[in-house]
From TrEMBL:
Annotated source species: Flavobacterium hungaricum
Enzyme Commission number(s): 6.3.1.14
Keywords per UniProt: Ligase
Keyword Ligase: yes
Molecular function terms from GO: diphthine-ammonia ligase activity
Protein name, per record: Diphthine--ammonia ligase
Pfam family, any one: Diphthami_syn_2
InterPro entries per UniProt: Diphthami_syn_dom, DPH6/MJ0570, Rossmann-like_a/b/a_fold
The UniProt record lists the keyword Ligase: yes
Diphthamide synthase domain residues: 6-206
Gene3D superfamilies xrefs: HUPs, putative n-type atp pyrophosphatase, domain 2
Length: 247
């Protein structure tokens, strides 16, 4: 048998990450050495998802995997974001890691961007759930016994009523027609708190639901990575966040 490639897993804390991790852990060609997650340095919450670092650490503990946190300034420029990422990857490369695993599904531009950045440091990208129809993925996710809660919704696509809901068949049926069932276009983000990979469920209670709108940067150089979009209308819309409080 050949020696498996050492890999990092880019962990968002959500459902796509959980299912991609589930699949890659069954692939003997790879050995996941650590989870890597970007965190808002100011608020100590997972970038875009708004989940507290305490819950992220609880996930890693339950998954029995080490966790590497990348501290990212709020509203970083692309240059700053890429600098932090490359610094982190260089450090991990010195530990013999050669591959980087993602839970992306069908966004071609995003995959191309990731692969270009990885090539700068000599890493190879791995995409375990790439091009699998999202309706198949969400049904597999639920049937495997994973449990996830919606922690952020983009008001461009969904209203406040969806944030704080557990993803189940009722949730899927209630989604607007223009929303991808996995939220792959950034419509919503989730926090996965139980499932076959977890040694124990992550215990939390639902806190305040808050609305946040990002200001458009004054210059291109300070482009908003938080919203993860180049859509010129992105700043016309805000986000509903559901705070999860560790118990």
């Amino acid at each position: 048998m050949s020696t498996p490639h050492k890999a990092i897993f880019n962990w968002s804390s959500g459902k796509d990450s959980a299912l991609a991790l589930y699949k890659i852990l069954q692939n003997s060609d790879f050995k996941i050495e650590t989870l890597v997650t970007s965190v808002n340095e100011k608020y100590q919450r997972i970038s875009m998802h708004g989940v507290r670092v305490e819950l992220l650490k609880a996930q890693a503990e339950s998954l029995n995997l080490p966790l590497k946190i990348m501290q990212i300034p709020e509203m970083p420029s692309m240059e700053i974001y890429e600098s932090v990422m490359l610094e982190t990857l260089s450090e991990l490369k010195n530990q013999g890691i050669t591959h980087s695993v993602f839970g992306d599904i069908f966004l071609e531009d995003l995959r191309k961007y990731r692969e270009e950045q990885l090539s700068r440091i000599g890493f190879t990208g791995v995409f375990p759930i790439w091009k699998i129809p999202t309706r198949d993925l969400i049904q597999e996710f639920i049937s495997l016994g994973f449990k996830t809660i919606v922690v952020c919704v983009n008001e461009k696509y969904m209203d406040k009523s969806f944030v704080g809901r557990i993803i189940d068949q009722d949730f899927i049926e209630d989604l607007p027609q223009n929303v991808d069932v996995c939220g792959e276009n950034g419509e919503f983000h989730t926090f996965t708190f139980d499932g076959p990979l977890f040694s124990k469920p992550i215990d939390f209670e639902i806190g305040e639901i808050v609305y946040r709108k990002y200001e458009q940067p004054k210059t291109e150089e300070s482009s908003n990575k938080a919203c993860d979009t180049t859509d010129s209308t992105a700043f016309d819309f805000g986000f509903w966040y559901c705070d999860l409080i560790p118990k």
